[in-house]
């Protein structure tokens, strides 16, 4: 399938950024053409790591006009969704595995004024989202087991992307985990719209140049049908 180039974007993930220079890091990719920043929130319970909370999102909001894509890897997302939106999140994604009532949680996000995304871990089948595809604004497929940056890409995720794209032609599909300049084209050709990249951008020799390279590769991949 061929996707509209305007709908394929690289989302730099600040999990891999230098937090002592976070404002500069975000400014670099913003000047390079990024439209969204990916923000990973981890609670040390749902995933084996702890990252940031609403105060940091609020600080990021002050530093940039880019859309903030906040990924909640936490056990009780309903409790914290309003705080993250109030802090500046433009869209929030929640894990199917963490939500007792996924439909309700997605609608809560939308009611609070943000776009709502449903997330699947690598071992969770796409079929579990069948009844909320008409509610979710986008779907995020994890291509690593969540909790840490810098992990190796799990290739079987691309088959999940194709499966999801086959049942939903227009829904934005986001992918997160292990994406580099070597596999970003395959992700786009499989049907992904939004490509999260952390280590391959912020832990390179230059974040702006790394972003531009990945965005160019992604855009060129649109010409190849699968």
Helices and strands, with pairings:
Layout: E1 9-12, H1 22-32, E2 36-42, H2 54-63, E3 67-73, H3 77-87, E4 91-95, H4 102-111, E5 115-120, E6 138-142, H5 157-167, E7 173-176, H6 184-190, E8 194-197, H7 199-202, H8 207-221
Parallel strand pairs: 1-8, 2-3, 3-4, 4-5, 5-6, 6-7, 7-8
Class, according to the CATH hierarchy? Answer: Alpha Beta
CATH fold naming: TIM Barrel
SSE string, helices as H and strands as E: EHEHEHEHEEHEHEHH
How many domains? The number is: 1
Strand content: 15-25%
Low-confidence stretches: 1-6
Question: Would you report the number of β strands?
Answer: 8
The CATH architecture: Alpha-Beta Barrel
In the sheet with the most strands, the strands line up as: 1-8-7-6-5-4-3-2
Alpha-beta content class: alpha/beta
Separation, N- and C-terminal Cα atoms: 6 Å
**Helix content estimate:** 25-40%
Describe this structure in words.
- There is one protein chain.
- The protein has one domain: Alpha-Beta Barrel (TIM Barrel).
- It contains eight helices and eight strands.
- Helix 6 packs parallel to helix 8.
- With about 230 residues, it is an alpha/beta fold.
- Strands 1-8-7-6-5-4-3-2 form an eight-stranded parallel sheet.
- The longest helix is centred in the C-terminal third of the chain and has 15 residues.
- It is globular, with a radius of gyration of 16 Å.
- About 35% of the residues lie in helices and about 20% in strands.
- Strand 2, helix 2 and strand 3 form a beta-alpha-beta unit.
């Amino acid at each position: 399938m061929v996707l509209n180039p305007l709908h394929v974007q690289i989302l730099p993930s600040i999990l891999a950024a230098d937090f002592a220079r976070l404002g500069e890091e975000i400014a670099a990719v913003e000047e390079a053409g990024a439209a969204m920043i990916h923000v990973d929130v981890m609670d040390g319970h749902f995933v084996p790591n702890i990252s940031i909370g609403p105060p940091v999102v609020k600080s990021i909001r002050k530093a940039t006009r880019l859309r903030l894509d906040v990924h909640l890897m936490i056990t009780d997302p309903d409790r914290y969704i309003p705080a993250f939106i109030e802090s500046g999140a433009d869209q929030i994604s929640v894990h199917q595995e963490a939500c007792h009532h996924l439909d309700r949680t997605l609608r809560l996000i939308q009611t609070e004024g943000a776009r709502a995304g449903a997330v699947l871990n690598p071992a969770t089948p796409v079929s579990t989202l069948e009844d909320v595809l008409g509610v979710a604004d986008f779907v995020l497929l994890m291509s690593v087991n969540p909790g840490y940056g810098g992990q190796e890409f799990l290739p079987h995720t691309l088959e999940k992307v194709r499966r999801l794209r086959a049942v939903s032609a227009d829904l934005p599909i986001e992918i997160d985990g292990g994406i580099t300049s070597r596999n970003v084209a395959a992700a786009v050709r499989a049907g992904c719209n939004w490509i999260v990249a952390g280590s391959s951008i912020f832990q390179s020799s230059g974040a702006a140049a790394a972003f531009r390279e990945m965005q160019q590769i992604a855009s060129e991949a649109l010409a190849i049908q699968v």
